[in-house]
Amino acid sequence: MMRIIYDLFRDGLSAINTAADDLAVAREQVATGRRISRASDDPLAVQQAIGEHATLAALDAYTRTNASAASRLGAIDNILNGVVDKITAALVAGSSARGSSIDANARSAAAAQIRGLRDSLLGDFNTQFNGTYLFSGTVAGTPAYAQVGGAWTYQGNSETTGVEIERGRVVSTTVDGQRIVQGSASADLFTTLDALAAAVEAGDNDAIGTALASLDDAFDRATAAQGRLGADESGVDGANARLAALRTIAETRRSKLEDADLAESVTRLTAATNAYQAALGAVSTAERHSLLDYLR
Amino acid sequence: MSGLFESLSTATSALTAARLGLDVTGQNLANVNTVGYSRRTLILADQPPGDALSPGRGVSVVAVQAMRDAFVNTRLRTEITGGAYDAAVLDGMTEVEAAVGLPGESLDVEITAFFDAFATLAQDPTSISAREAVIGQGTSLSAAFRTMTERFTAARRNADASIASSADEINQLAAEVAALNTQIVSRGFDVESLRDRRDVAISRLSELGGVTATTNAEGGVDLAIGSGRPLVVSGTAYALTTATSGPLGLTSLSIGGYDITGEIAGGRIGGLLAVRDTLVPGYQTSLDQMAYDFASAINTAHQAGFDATGSPGGAFFTPLAGAAGSAAAIDVDATLAADSALVAASGTGSIGDNAAARAIAALRDARIANGNTATAVGAWGQIAFRVGSDVRGAQASNDTHDAVTRQLQRLRDQTSGVSVDEEAANLMRFQRSYEASARYFTTIVDTLDTLMNMVR
Questions:
Q1: In CATH, what is the architecture of A52-253?
Q2: Which of A186, A251, B75, B200 gives a 20 to 30 Å CA spacing to B130?
Q3: Residue ranges of the domains in chain A?
Q4: How large is the ipTM?
Q5: Domain ranges in chain B?
């Protein structure tokens, strides 16, 4: 005959402890909304979640870089718009001063306007953004153009500062100013404007024509730079959209790994509460009766 | 042919047996909650008749026997040893697991923030605040590596402290078993309570150090620890001695002049030794390798760049001699930490170039750790996985040991446990037996009176 001994501490309390553990886990999941509260809860999910957090951080870093790049590209775009407008204004001023019917006062006024536009363009190409010169290539601490020994001199270089806006995609946040101001031409924009102003003052129509042709080339270079910039700005917008989509996907993966399913957790909490109460009830009644109660 | 006076003797023996039965039942009920108590049973035998026409001469009490199952007790001790090992591993690993933390809340965040700082510097390589931020994050990451190392070391020290105190308890228990052996062998009788106490002590020794027990010819129990090193032989206990060694002053255990630290693979001490000497050092080695790989990769990329003065970049982290101890030693180079202009962000020497900063930021996705098989964060993920799975494995093993131990305890109770219902039945049985024997006695006395009256 098998002797069955019920031990309150061994059998009863272990059942209560097991139910209490389950209840604590269910409560923690509902309270925190997290499925994992320590590495041993699901080691593989923890390892994967660490990777997902790193992925999210990388995407966020790209997003921050994009925001910074977008503001720089926006500033450059704004400046290039002004450059194109000012070259156009110089072309108009030069063209209107060409011909034999223009009097000296008008030519003088046109020359002054052209020199004003030159100074304004110089200011444009020497614009700083957060302390760095945008049109000096990577010589970020030096203005792009200055007059050195009576000649307009490019002080930057032909390199640009590139930032990675998404994995493998780099856009330039500084510009090689010389590529716009001079390109492959023999004279830079400022020298051309100086020559144009002098030709207008002198009423030298041939020289005006030569200068206007050079200005046309400068206009083309500026609009080409706008085109390149537009492609980069468009690239940033596209990258932002892709980064947002990738972030959503990574966040979904992370959530599946780490977050508790609330409906499931609440159901589990209810079940665990019932199991705990049942264990308490079962143990409290287990040793209430024995044969001693029936002995007279 | 027996006489009436012999019948009185028969009645007396029956009354004595019934009273002893009640005493045994009382003893069992009194010890229903005594740990290690083995229930007692009264062994009775009828007294054979003196001649052919006699039914017998009553009952004799042969023994008060303690009910034990040696096989179950041995199995139980084995399971207790295994369970204690797992419980000790779980105890020791609790703070390691807490130190490792959760995804996005531990060393991985510091690594990510370090790469973020270089990505920010790449946005504006001339920014002094971005340069300072890079140094700040490098310092913070170095501190995180060192803190993790300190936590691992603290876990080893805590396990070590428990080993020393457990060794003290083993010595006390071994001395107790030796003393009980002496008493049991010398007294020879009425020793069941001493055996119970000895069983409890041996159980606790199994829990602490995974001892093996052998009953010797004299009735004593010899105990061995480690690879069969004698701990108790009859009435002699051999002391487990402790000594400290190494830079951490960790405890080693010796018995009889032999270092048995590496031999104890079971029980609480075995689990604590596993935490102290195998598991945590394993994580530490991985963390050291990770810190070394990380610092080396960053230094290589940094030295390929140029600082704000246009000079070639130096080491970002203080160069490490080797992987061992790297997590405790890693730190931003002191000269660089004092002058953010020495941060190499440029790839060409131009102050506005950011190629070096971009190259370092891009290392977040590069397999720079563990023999170029894992990213820096991936290497940390591997450590977190190992810690989690070791704890989970110990938990699962502990649960199994608990279940088997409970089952074996039930089996032990089938033989040795006190059942209140059963003792209540015995109480009634011996009470009725005593009443019946008393009636028999008075009947014989009355019969003797009748006989006496016949001769008056």
A1: Up-down Bundle (1.20)
A2: A251
A3: 52-253
A4: 0.85
A5: 4-67+417-454, 74-403
